[in-house]
Write a structure and sequence with these properties.
The protein has about 270 residues and is an alpha/beta fold. It has a single domain, classed as Ribokinase (UDP-N-acetylmuramoyl-L-alanine:D-glutamate ligase). It is about 40% helix and about 20% strand. The strands form three sheets. It has a five-stranded parallel sheet with strand order 2-1-5-6-7, sandwiched between helices. A three-stranded antiparallel sheet has the order 8-9-10, with helices on both faces. A two-stranded antiparallel ribbon has the order 3-4. Helix 1 (about 20-30) crosses helix 7 (about 210-225), helix 3 (about 85-95) packs parallel to helix 4 (about 120-130) and helix 7 packs antiparallel against helix 8. The protein starts with a strand and ends in a 25-residue tail after the last helix.
């Protein structure tokens, strides 16, 4: 099964994150990506220099026409930007994609620090969209905003997972890359328990788009019929390989090598 993923997210003119990273990741892992753009951004590896929101009615129309013709096995959301966008996406998914699993990447801040979600929209994201998700994939700052707690250790990550699950989310992939140290821990939490995935950090500044890439890699795995755990394992391996072979472009946080090849038969937890 090839796996169809409809990505609802913003663009990255630098090609490293956003809808561009989503399309590249889904394609690299053998899936088919369709898109509904929520915003255009002017950005590169140094930062975000401009954001142009897409009108909510047009976001809805993009979702409608894709679902009515091509369809999707999984929906993946990224940058949503503001309250009207979130409301439009929630309504469109209810109307045109009811029952389709949602992988929600709660994009809030770009790698360079530019806010990509209005403060007023965090509560709406938490109350409206989170309960619709099959799995959410926050990094630590995003998990802090959603849970209302400070996360400074793996123990805190475990506590935060419990808080996020209590909001009505069936599963949380909490990424620990913002913690200090050479060891990097991601947690996959469900009501059945929490599994830790531990690896050594790759020493590089070329990590732009890792969040978008991870979420899309998980989404296409689910679209291809993989279990959530297996989709996470493959996604982590793909992202690590893409970081390790990053092309080194740009003066800031450079993009990954989304076209990297790796042997999925040799995946390790």
């Amino acid at each position: 099964m090839r796996g169809r993923v409809l990505v609802v997210a913003g663009s990255d003119s630098g090609g490293g994150a956003g809808i561009q990273a989503d399309i590249k990741s889904i394609t690299a892992l053998g899936g088919f990506a369709a898109t509904a753009l929520t915003a255009l951004t002017a950005q590169n590896t140094v930062g975000v220099f401009g954001v142009h929101p897409v009108p909510p009615a047009f976001i809805r129309q993009q979702i409608q026409v894709v679902m009515e013709d091509i369809g999707a096995d999984v929906i993946k959301t990224g940058m949503l930007g503001d309250v009207p966008t979130i409301e439009a996406v929630c309504a469109a998914l209810s109307d045109f994609a009811h029952g389709v699993p949602l992988v929600l990447d709660p994009v809030m801040v770009a790698k360079g620090g530019h806010a990509l979600l209005a403060d007023a929209a965090v509560g709406v994201l938490r109350s409206r969209l989170l309960p619709m998700a099959r799995v959410i994939t926050p990094n630590l700052p995003e998990a802090e905003a959603l849970s209302g707690m400070t996360i400074q250790s793996v123990a805190d990550m475990r506590t935060a997972c419990g808080v996020l699950l209590s909001l009505g989310v069936p599963a949380v992939l909490l990424k620990g890359g913002h913690l200090a140290g050479d060891e990097l821990t991601d947690l996959l939490a469900t009501p059945d328990g929490i599994e830790a995935f531990v690896g050594l950090r790759i020493a590089t500044r070329h990590t732009h788009g890792t969040g978008c890439t991870t979420a899309s890699a998980v989404a296409v795995g689910l679209a291809q019929g993989m279990s959530l755990r297996d989709a996470v394992i493959r996604a982590r391996a793909y992202v690590r390989a893409a970081i390790a072979s990053a092309p080194g472009f740009g003066a800031g946080h450079g993009p990954l090598d989304h076209g990297v090849t790796f042997d999925p038969s040799r995946l390790e937890v």
